[in-house]
Each structure stands twice: as C-alpha cells, then as structure tokens.
Amino acid sequence: MQKTVITAEFIAESIRNEILQGKRKGGEPLRQDEIASRFSVSKIPVREALVQLKSEGLVSFVQNKGAAVSSLSADEVDEIYTIRSALETIALQRAIPHLTIADLAKAETIIQQIDSTQTVSDWGRLNWTFHAILYAPAKMPRLIETVESLHTNVSRYLVLYLAGLNYQAQSQLEHRQILDACRQGEVETAVSILQTHLEAASKKLVAFLNESENKTSGEKAK
Amino acid sequence: MQKTVITAEFIAESIRNEILQGKRKGGEPLRQDEIASRFSVSKIPVREALVQLKSEGLVSFVQNKGAAVSSLSADEVDEIYTIRSALETIALQRAIPHLTIADLAKAETIIQQIDSTQTVSDWGRLNWTFHAILYAPAKMPRLIETVESLHTNVSRYLVLYLAGLNYQAQSQLEHRQILDACRQGEVETAVSILQTHLEAASKKLVAFLNESENKTSGEKAK
DNA sequence: TTGATTAAAATCGTATACGATCTTAGAATA
DNA sequence: TATTCTAAGATCGTATACGATTTTAATCAA
User: Fold this and answer.
1) pLDDT per 10-residue tile (average), chain A, 222 residues
2) Are A142 and B44 a contacting pair at CB < 8 A?
3) What contacts B63, CB < 8 A, 6 or more positions away?
4) Staple A26 to which of A71, B5, B77, B195, CB 3.0 to 4.6 Å?
5) Which residue of chain A has the CA closest to B66?
6) Do residue B87 and residue A87 have CB atoms under 8 angstroms apart?
C-alpha cells in the first residue's frame, strides 16, 4: 500500500470531521502537541493541517496562542447564506439543462437516505451530497468548492440546533420539490424553491444565534 | 519594534507579490530551500506560506514534488468572472445606500492615481482598491475576501496581457461611470455598468487565453 | 480574603537534521 | 547513435530539539 495522502491532508480531514460532528466546540483550543501525539506524528504536519483548516474558516490562529475552533456570529451566518444563495442559484440554473436520468435517480436515492438517517453529521453530509449532485453538471468546480466550504461552515451549527425540530420535514419537502422541478426542466421554479430553501435555513439559524448571543452578551468582551 | 507578523505571513505576502508582478510564471516550481535561504529562515514557515498560497489558488502542490505557481485556463477565468459578477453585484448594490462623501472622494482619488500609474502591478493593485472602496460599506467581509482572492488570481494575467492595449482607457471610462452612478444613488445603473465592466475584462482575457492554449496545444499532455 | 508577584509548566514557532523520493547525468548496452 | 541502467545529487516531507512566549499556580503583601 502506497502512502495514501499527505499526512497533513489526513489530519485536516480528521479534525474537520470532529468539528463538524460537534466534538470540538467553537472557541476550543486545538493543541498541536496533543493532536500530534494522537496521530503519532510531529507538530509540523499538524500545523500545516491547521493552516489548511484556517483557510476553510473552521479554525483561527492567534499569534503565540495557536489555533482554536472558530465560531460564527449571526451576521456571519447571514452573510454566508447570501453568498450561497447567489452562487448556488447560478450552479443550479446552469446544471439543470445537463442533468441526466442517472443524476436525478442518484439525487432521489440521497433524499431517501436522508429520511432514514439517524446521526446529525450524516444528515449534514447527505444534505450537501444532494445539492452537489444537482450542481455538478454546471461544470463550475471553483464555485462548487467555495459553496461546499460555506456549507461546511454553517453545517456544524445546523446539525446542532435544527436537527430535532420539524425543520427536517420541511427541508425534505423542499428537496423533493426542487428535484421535481429539475425533472421537469423548470429552471425558474427550481431556482425559486432553492432560494426559499436556503432562506428558511438562514432565518432559523440566524434567529437561534441572535438569541444565544443576547443570552451571553457581555461574555464577548472578555 | 515588535515582531510585525508571523514569518509565514510575511513570506506568503512576498511570494504573492512576486507572482502578481509576473516575476514567477505559471508552472514555475517554488523551491523551499531557495526561498528559505533567501529569507534566512528554515523551510517550515516557507511551507506554511505555500500552503496558505495554495488555499488562495496561486500555487499548487504535487506529492514529493513540492509547490509550483499555478496557471489558469480560459475556462477557469470564465468561471472566476461569473462568480465575481454575482458577488460584486451584491456588494455594490448593498453598499451604495451607505456610501459616504469621503468614500466617493477616495474612489475619485484612486481613479486619478490609476491614470498616472506606470507599472502594471500598481495598476492591478489600485484597480482592486477602487472596487474595494465601493464595496466596503456593504459590510460583507467574507464576500469581499472571496472576491479579492478571485481578483488576485486573474489580476496577474490581466496586468500581463491587457495593460498595453486600449483596455485601460475603456476600463477607466467605466470606473468613472460606475462612480457617477454611485454618486447619484442609481443602484441599477451602477450594477449594470459593473457587470459590463467585468464582462469586458472576462471576454478579452478568455479570448487571449484560448488563443495561447490553441497555440500550445499538445504541450499539455506532457 | 483579595490582589500582585514571580517561578514553573505548558505551549508555541521554527531551526536543524535526516530518511524518502525524485531528478539528473554519466556508464553500459544494444 | 540511441536506449536502458545506475548512482549521485537535489529536493521533499517530517521527526527532533530548543528558545520564546504564554499560562498556571504558588507565594507573598495588603
């Protein structure tokens, strides 16, 4: 077996997953020595992994204090959804004319998998998979990469706070409506529902975060 | 004087500038030892700088072959301008109602500076400064950061290939039109000219790159 | 008790060193 | 001559080691 990937990539993926699964909370420091010994490597690939995650917005660095899991404010979440809406709209619009039967079937399968999903991190991952399938034929890899990164950033909050509610039922309904519109080739309709879909998530999440920020206001000055 | 920035940040900025000034051509390998000795540091901060630049799209890594300055295809440039148009449109639209007299004056100054600019790298930098001033009041730091990164990526090609032509005169005319529309608070007009402005740059650059790609087709399979 | 002071421990950032991989150039072979 | 082989050099990726900074905790003063 050849060395599968660069060490730093492997470590970055592990830490990314931990953050997405809520095992690492916002603000929590990421000790280089601890991570290094856990993976039985030196700090050097660990630091490179953290620099990578910093560029994805999942961790932040402070001089001589190392890395910590970054947090999102309500404003930032709002901004992220504005960007996502603009970009995903373009992707879907361009992709629909090129969607194949196989793509649509694959998307349908993912919707069903989401229905029977138990863990929140699976839900977040499948959620993105569904969208990514519909966007892929747009052949815009940079746009998709950007959107995926933004999705990842909000996902850890979504899975934590919206999973229990009736949000999932509504979300799945919209997924099915989007898929139907894609099948019919109704670009306008699909894009419109997608925007609604994103706005709904954004509003709930922003409201939730505003609430928690008010509760804990004053702590931030620390 | 305290240590201004982390070493890696400083090195990243230096290499970034070299790439933007055309001192480092696309495909050119970036030797870690060479860079390290030039800055009198070890390879470790150099590698972190390169990982950072990779996340900005300016360099790419290949396993055991290190980093090299990345190149852009015509398709990628086209995609980048599509993304920029979508995002900059939002930024300008939201910023205009909050533009102050001081912002407008600052933008006017930059236009004048561009007129008297000699070097292409100054032109690229000032060009972005002008746009950034008009976008800033939108208060969307992530969006701006994303757009800036995309601007940086195409800038090194723009300055190389469009600087000589009459492109700059046209570009400056559009800058003044955008600024005028901003002064009048005419959001629709400003956004519309901005889109034209970006499309013009995109078309010229894509045409140029398609031409060079055809000339050198066959080399790519290497 | 509370707050200031300082020494010890923890942690960071990076220089040095080294095995692993890749590249290159000359020798051997056809 | 052209091609394959091989060994030396170049370059990469990372473990180890260490000074610098920060944090913690213990001591002392108010």
Assistant:
1) 65 96 93 97 97 96 94 96 98 98 98 90 93 98 97 88 74 96 98 97 91 60 32
2) no
3) A6
4) A71
5) A6
6) yes
